[in-house]
# Entry
Amino acid sequence: MIKKLLHTRYRVTDLEKTVSFYRDVLGLEEVRRHTSGRGSQLVFLKAPGSEQEIEICKFDESGPVQVGPDLTHLAFEVDDLETFAKQTAAKGYPLSDGPHPNGKGGAIAFIDAPEGYEVELIQRSGAR
# Structure
């Protein structure tokens, strides 16, 4: 029986650029890093207030990383989407889509991570 979700893995080509994006642009905490028994370089990150982690993996032996459009995304809640968008744009990562009202009094937007993975940003109603 499954107990809970522990982490989601994204394989990348440029480990440090991707980790920097999640840590320095989005504000996630780097929890740990190590090299697996088969040689994968792994970095685990998590968002404040979350138990689930994101595993960023570099393993060149698997071949090139190809992220298709609209394949997958991570979604994070933000307090103030407009302020968050200004901060990420100042760091070189403008919104790629939105913000759009979500019909519930909040809004959603998207930003692209370095390898082409999409990140959804959600501001819930009453936030700010």
Notes: The longest helix spans residues 15-25.
